[in-house]
Design goal:
Layout lengths: L2 H26 L10 E2 L3 H11 L4 E2 L6 H9 L16 H5 L3 H6 L7 H29 L8 H4 L2 H8 L4 H16 L3 H14 L5 H12 L3 H26 L16 H10 L3 H24 L2 H6 L1 H7 L3 H4 L2 H7 L1 H13 L11 H6 L7
Parallel strand pairs: 1-2
Helix pairs in contact: 1-6, 2-3, 3-6, 6-9, 8-18, 9-10, 10-12, 11-12, 14-18, 14-19
């Protein structure tokens, strides 16, 4: 079978795995898709919003998770009626900045509530397949089997995103495909995909900055500037639009996940004392950050450069992100997939730093790994 077809098969396998997980969960709750929207028992505004439109919904403990906000946004993804919809969000500007997933799940504002609930699950299943397909092709570019693409599909962080109706899979699928495009020297397509990634999750701005650093080290200065500038401007443009629609609101104070370096990790130990799983994963993630950073600096591979910034981001996450393995793994999920590929397939990149013959050649044509 041709290698590109094998990559498609790997992507389809990923979609099948995601679908099987969804079917198993749905079969246990009477085929109620609202379980994947993650409404919370104590999250009164979003719970009442959903019950007015859907009737009884499945409720998670306490506040639930991100999907409940995307459900609200999907009804009005262009923020045309903020008085009815955006006011239900806990942090309107922060939540609304992640616009792409609700645009897709809401059919650009055309779907009704029932359709939105199913579309949220479908979009994530498709993104899981698309991201796995892209990583499979990345693995081939790095000289490995396309079946290494399953490093995306089996990433616990991405499975967690599907489980709560999050936007992380869509953002990561676009970002990994962008890396593939830059490796193939298809810069304009890569920049377009980076715009998609950052509009799905603003933290994915790490990717264009990281790729730009790789381009800069490879003496492609103009391309590096454009690669950073265009996705950044897309985020700024949407942020300005939101402030015109919603108002300035609480501004920067809406971001609660960022604090002093290492403070969140240290504070999380208090809650980890009675939870060995969270403790084990938390410590393992910190070790992973160290190993990933070393691998990136040694290999100088664009894949590692693209997501190295998530290590710095992990250092300044607050306790609410570090507290649970569920949250920290999905917050930095691209690092997990990238690390697997770099460890097993990225060694040839160790001798391909800026200025090496292969790097110079790649500037004239197909971009070397």
């Amino acid at each position: 079978m041709p290698r590109h077809r094998t990559a498609i098969v790997v992507g389809l396998v990923a979609m099948a795995l995601s679908s099987l997980m969804a079917v198993r969960v749905l079969s246990e709750v009477g085929w109620d898709p609202t379980i994947f929207v993650a409404f919370g028992e104590e999250a009164t505004p979003t719970r009442e919003y959903a019950e007015e439109r859907l009737g009884e919904v499945f409720l998670r403990p306490a506040q639930g998770h991100d999907g409940k906000f995307f459900f609200v946004q999907a009804h009005d993804p262009w923020v045309l009626d903020p008085e009815t919809n955006a006011q239900v969000l806990d942090r309107p500007l922060y939540r609304s900045q992640r616009m792409l997933y609700p645009v897709l799940a809401g059919g650009a504002g055309l779907f009704d509530s029932e359709a939105i609930v199913w579309a949220m699950l479908l979009v994530n299943a498709l993104a899981m397949g698309f991201g796995t397909w892209a990583v499979a092709l990345l693995a081939q570019e790095m000289g490995g089997s396309p079946w290494w693409g399953l490093a995306f599909a089996l990433n616990i962080g991405f499975f967690s995103e599907v489980n709560i109706g999050g936007a992380g899979v869509v953002a990561a699928a676009a970002a990994f495909t962008a890396v593939l495009m830059f490796m193939r020297d298809r810069v304009m397509i890569g920049i377009g995909l980076l715009c998609v990634a950052v509009l799905a999750r603003e933290a994915m701005l790490i990717a264009p900055v990281g790729i730009a650093s790789w381009l800069w080290l490879n003496r492609r200065h103009k391309t590096a500037v454009v690669t950073t500038l265009v996705p950044g401007l897309s985020v700024v443009a949407w942020a300005v639009y939101l402030r015109l629609r919603i108002g300035d609101g609480a501004g920067a104070s809406e971001v609660q996940e960022i604090g002093w370096p290492f403070a969140g990790f240290v504070d999380a130990f208090t809650s980890w004392r009675n939870d060995p799983l969270d403790l084990t994963v938390g410590v393992a993630m910190m070790i992973l950050f160290v190993l990933f950073t070393r691998r990136v600096l040694v290999s100088r591979h664009v894949l590692g450069r693209a997501f190295l910034g998530f290590v710095a981001l992990g250092m300044i996450f607050t306790e609410q992100v570090w507290r649970s393995y569920f949250d920290i793994t999905r917050a930095v999920a691209p690092v997990i997939t990238s690390f697997v590929l770099l460890v097993f397939l990225g060694r040839q990149g160790e001798s391909e730093g800026p200025g090496s013959p292969s790097t110079v050649t790649s500037q004239k044509g197909h971009t070397s790994a």
